[in-house]
Amino acid sequence: MKRIWIPILIVALLSAFRDDGNFFRPWPEKVYDFSNELQFKERVALGRVLFYDPILSADSTISCASCHLQYTAFAHVDHALSHGIHDSVGTRNAPALINLAWHSHFMWDGAIHHLDMQALAPISHPGEMGSSIQDVIMRINRSGKYTALFLQAFGDEKATGETMLKSISRFLSTLNSNQSRYDSVMRHETVFSPQEKRGYSLFRKHCNACHTEPLFTNYQFVDNGLPIDAKLHDYGRYAITHNPDDSLRFKVPTLRNITYSYPYMHDGRFENLSEVLAHYDHGIVIRNSTHAKLKRGIKLTSAQRVDLMAFLLTLNDKHFLFQPELGFPMK
Ligand code: HEC
Ligand code: HEC
User: Fold this and answer.
1) Greatest CA separation found in the chain?
2) How far apart are CA 49 and CA 211, in angstroms?
């Protein structure tokens, strides 16, 4: 009797793990889940108003949203390098802000370890918002505009550095994208077209090791073989750890909404995805830090590139890009 069951079991197991795109990949646990906080909703609402308010910058010209626009997945598409206060040009491309509650480190080099601390960096950066927490808190408390919002969110109408940073991070934790075509396929609500399915297989084979489903990043720091930019001298993770092994390693970015968040890479060097695929095909620089998986390049025929591109398009999430709750707060 038992002999009959073993082959049936093997077939059942194999079909459950078959890579045909119909196998649901569960999402990992969030790193940040604030939703149990009693005033969570009020904190998110306050953080959203602050995110869109130029009051956070020294001369009230730049808001977080100046560099992180919703309809480009909260990236900054006009510029390779971000532009901040007094027309100053930064040294890195503003990344898309997607599913941040799952990140354990922030910034291209992982300089920030906690979501609550994230807003401090741009506020006090002389080339971004050029201000300081003390000045921002003074402007907020003086404006009168925020008393009711802080009272509802924290039981005190006076803002402090802590409550301001907390409310912004609560809002950031709601920038969640999980309604793409890819997600619908994984939820068995629809199926991939034959072309998307071919693209998905190529993706699983060549890209998924770093841009890992379902978040499309493994949050590791990796050197993907970009030629060194002689002007920027950006050594990535090395600046934080001073470990020579971390030289030229940058955080793997998510590929969700990728067609909206151009230009690409930490310095915005590539305008479009064809240039990115050309890099992986024949542009990779081989050095000690280059990831082993990339040392021989990712060679794709032009038909395969089209298929892969069709798959990447399924990662676009219009719901996220136009979700009213994430946009500019109307009164
Ligand atoms: C002048 C443009 C600019 C402004 C204004 C700005 N940012 Fe950014 N943001 C950037 C750049 C550039 C980076 C990447 C910096 C780096 O890696 O060193 C970044 C990184 C981030 C990250 C990390 C994302 C990740 O995947 O690691 C978050 C979160 C973020 N910004 C939120 C904010 C918030 C909140 C504000 C407002 C308080 C803000 N930003 C204001 C340009 C800007
Ligand atoms: C070995 C790990 C690894 C593999 C494999 C890999 N990537 Fe990347 N990818 C990275 C890293 C790291 C970056 C960021 C590098 C930087 O900016 O310095 C990146 C950046 C990108 C970007 C730019 C994203 C943005 O927001 O700027 C795209 C697009 C991209 N990869 C697509 C792909 C595709 C498509 C494949 C498969 C053909 C692939 N990658 C394979 C590690 C990898």
Assistant:
1) 81
2) 32
What is the model's pLDDT at position 23?
60
- Give the pLDDT of residue 16: 47
How far apart, in whole angstroms, are the C-alpha atoms of residue 13 and residue 18? 9
Q: What is the mean pLDDT of residues 129-158?
A: 94
Q: Relative to the CA of 206, which ligand 2 atom is closest?
A: 37
Site to probe by mutation for ligand 2, drawn from 234, 267, 276, 290 as the one with most ligand atoms within 8 Å of Cβ, is: 276
> Which domains, from first to last, does the chain contain?
40-176 (1.10.760.10), 181-319 (1.10.760.10)
Q: How far apart are CA 152 and CA 142, in angstroms?
A: 18
Shortest-distance atom of ligand 1 to CA 123? 38
CA of 315, nearest ligand number = 2
Q: Which range has the worst mean pLDDT, 14-18, 30-34, 166-170?
A: 14-18
Six token digits for residue 4? 């009959």
Mean pLDDT across the chain, nearest whole number? 90
Q: Residues enclosing ligand 1, CB less than 6 A?
A: 51, 56, 62, 64, 66-68, 82, 84, 90, 92, 94-95, 97, 100, 103, 106-109, 118-119, 122-123, 128-129, 168, 172
Per-residue pLDDT for 98 more than 70?
A: yes
